[in-house]
Task: inverse folding
DNA sequence: ATGGTTGTTGCACAA
C-alpha cells in the first residue's frame, strides 16, 4: 500500500511545525507540497531525512515553490517542464519517480482575473503541462499529477456557482484544460470515489469562509488508469484546515494498493 | 457590491 498526499502549505517556513505533526499523524509514503515559498537552500531536507524521507524541492524564494518528499524512493527528478518546452519562469512543477509511480507536484498559476494577463499565462501553463506529460511519461504507466490546480472541475466543486460565474477557477477555458488531461488518460481520483459529493480543499482566510463552508475543491489528485484501479480511498483532511495558523488549503490523501 | 486575511528577504503584492 502506498499512501500519497498533496498539500498546498502556503509557506513551508510558516507551516513546518504543522506539516511535521501532520506527517507524523498521517504517515504518507509520498507527500507533494506546493507554495513552499522558499529557495532550494532553505528547504529543510535534513529535517525530512530525519523523519525517513528523501526529498526534491524546486523553489526560488518569496513565491511558488514545489516539492516531493518520499520514503519509497525518489529518482529521475525533473524540475520545471521537460524537454524543449518553453521553461516556466516560476517554480511550479517538479516530477520524480517514487515506488515506480511517475509523480508530478504542480502549482498551477492562479489566473487572478479573466482580464488579467496572468489568466492567459495560466491557460498557457496548462497547455505546457499537457506537453510535459506527453514528453515525460505515458498514460500506460503509473502516473500521478497532483497539486493545486486552481481549477474547480465542476460546479459541484464550488460553494456558490452563481457568485463565481465568469471568474477564474471555473471558466470553460480552464475546465477544457482539465478535460484535455482527462482525455490524455488522467482521472480525478477524489471524484471517482465520491460522485456528487460537495467537499472542498481550499477556503479563503477572509470573512470566516472556512467556518461558513464557503470553499472550492481545487486541490486534485489526477491518476492514470492503473492508479484509478489501485486507488481505494481518497479523503480531504479538513481537520488540517482547523486550529492555529493553518494553511488556507487542506491536504488530499489517496491510498493505492 | 464590498470587504475581509495571511504570507513574504514585506512597507506592495500575491493569493
Result:
Amino acid at each position: 500500500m502506498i499512501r500519497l498526499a498533496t498539500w498546498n502549505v502556503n509557506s513551508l517556513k510558516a507551516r513546518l511545525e504543522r506539516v511535521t505533526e501532520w506527517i507524523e499523524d498521517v504517515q504518507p509514503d509520498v507527500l507533494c507540497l506546493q507554495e513552499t515559498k522558499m529557495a532550494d537552500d532553505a528547504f529543510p531536507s535534513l529535517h525530512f531525512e530525519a523523519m525517513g524521507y528523501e526529498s526534491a524541492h524546486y523553489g526560488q524564494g518569496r513565491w511558488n515553490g514545489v516539492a516531493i518528499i518520499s520514503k519509497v524512493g525518489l529518482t529521475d527528478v525533473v524540475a520545471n517542464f521537460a524537454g524543449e518546452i518553453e521553461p516556466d519562469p516560476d517554480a511550479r512543477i517538479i516530477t520524480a519517480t517514487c515506488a515506480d509511480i511517475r509523480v508530478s507536484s504542480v502549482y498551477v498559476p492562479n489566473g487572478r482575473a479573466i482580464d488579467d494577463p496572468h489568466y492567459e499565462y495560466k491557460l498557457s501553463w496548462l497547455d505546457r503541462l499537457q506537453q510535459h506529460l506527453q514528453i515525460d511519461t505515458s498514460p500506460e504507466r503509473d502516473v500521478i499529477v497532483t497539486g493545486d490546480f486552481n481549477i474547480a472541475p465542476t460546479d459541484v466543486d464550488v460553494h456558490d456557482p452563481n457568485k463565481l460565474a465568469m471568474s477564474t477557477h471555473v471558466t470553460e477555458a480552464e475546465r477544457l484544460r482539465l478535460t484535455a488531461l482527462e482525455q490524455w488518460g488522467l482521472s480525478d481520483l477524489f471524484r471517482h470515489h465520491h460522485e456528487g459529493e460537495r467537499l472542498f480543499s481550499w477556503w479563503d482566510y477572509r470573512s470566516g469562509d472556512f467556518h461558513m463552508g464557503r470553499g472550492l475543491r481545487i486541490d486534485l489528485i489526477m491518476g492514470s488508469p492503473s492508479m484509478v484501479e489501485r486507488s481505494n480511498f481518497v479523503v480531504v483532511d479538513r481537520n488540517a484546515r482547523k486550529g492555529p495558523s493553518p494553511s488556507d488549503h487542506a491536504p488530499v490523501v489517496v491510498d493505492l494498493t
